[in-house]
Description:
The chain has 485 residues and is an alpha+beta fold. It has 18 helices and 17 strands. It has helices spanning 3-7, 32-35, 59-78, 102-105, 125-134, 179-194, 209-220, 227-239, 249-253, 259-271, 275-282, 287-302, 347-350, 365-374, 397-416, 430-439, 450-454, 477-484; strands at 82-83, 89-91, 108-111, 117-120, 143-147, 150-152, 164-173, 202-208, 308-310, 324-330, 339-343, 358-364, 387-391, 421-423, 444-448, 458-463, 469-473. Strands 1, 5, 6, 7, 8, 9, 10, 11 and 12 form a 9-stranded mixed sheet that branches. Belongs to the class-II aminoacyl-tRNA synthetase family. It comes from Aureococcus anophagefferens (Harmful bloom alga). It catalyses: tRNA(His) + L-histidine + ATP = L-histidyl-tRNA(His) + AMP + diphosphate + H(+).
Amino acid sequence: MRATHALRSTTPRAVRRCAPLSAGRASAAVSQKEQAPATPETQAALDLNPPRGTRDFYPEELRVRNWLFGQWRATAAAHGFEEYDSPVLESEALYVRKAGEEVTQQLYNFEDKGGRRVALRPEMTPSLARMVMARKNALPLPVKWFSVPQCWRYERTTRGRRREHYQWNMDIWGVPGVTAEAEVLAAVVGFFERVGIDSADVGIKINSREVLAELLAKTCGVDQADGARFAATCVLVDKLEKVPAAKLYDDFAALDVSPDAVDALVEKLGEGGSIEALEALLGADSPALANLREVYALAEAYGYADWLVFDASVVRGLAYYTGVVFEAFDRSGELRAICGGGRYDKLLESFGGDALPAVGFGFGDAVVMELLEMKGLVPDLDSSVDAVLFALASGDGDNDAALARDAAGVAATLRKLGLRVDLVLEPKKPKWAFKHADRKNAPLALMLAPDEWADGRALVVKDLGTGDQANVPLDELPAWLEARA
């Protein structure tokens, strides 16, 4: 065993959230008056909070974020997905669609210095579509890619909803059948199980845009072939879960859908509480219902059918979905949707390309962290090192400086052995150094004391768990650590 393995510690530490904001540099073109030193009378107090809806990540918080991202990446790797990334700054045209989507209204968009309209990405799928189009003829299908991008939306901040957030995305391109839906759903469930959440905590609502298409045709006279009208109607239907139908009559009327038709649609959605109920409405030969049945059959084979909850009202707000759609929800009802996704076979067509079957989901960090905290499943993570190394302060400036140089050399030697060593950079007394080692969750404290170091270049090694102490020559330290393991 390497010595580094024997020294690692997992002592819990609490996680606490804070939020400062650093100041920017001043312009070199300011006037002499502006360059004058600020005084309490002329300088306003610096706001130490980050911009509204954004977050700072102090080390203890970043450890938790990295842990979450690690769980996402491990889940994706277990399913054979490869990671990709793209610029956070994209062309505005990538997101501006004509279906009344909130994402278009919530863009952080502006004109750059070259006169180009750009936006901070609000979601990853359009960037992925752009990348797939760029190499479509060279990509071996199916494409199974994932990413963990930072996304931006200018929206009202609530619990689990921020203007800046990170989002786990997994997508499969080139598979027309619902085996792709079943696989990405397996990944969602796999992540939840990896972090200790089960189907009693979370369910996954599932529906199909094709089911909705058949209902809209029967109740509202809206045909799926009328692409723009159908997409805009789907966006409104998605709002029915949150907004009374009467408040959306005018919006539906703009799409030539009467209030009576809206009421009929709401009634049918309420009646479709199961696939069997929908069969009575749509007929046993409905292709949409056949697809949903196959998803359930595959879920049984994977072993996650108990997570699925059929819900005919689930639409998802993005207009580009074309088939099965789904969203994970907190069964206690305290949180908004945890993640969501579905099939979007025609997205490339909206960018002028050829259609290519695609399925994927987005999984935000803010909501799932709320859920994990509710369930007590956020791990206590520390910033442990294998050892704290320090030179004993004697009060003799020249001797202390020489010993400090030797300590730097020892630290370099130990780090080459694979040890994580925190070198104390100023002369300190043992009491301070031992307390510091405890804060760093280090199992060992290594001290260069003048007499022991002069006599055979021996380190004073203290086991902070047992209190045992030994003098170990530097060239014997690796074997000593190996024996200790």
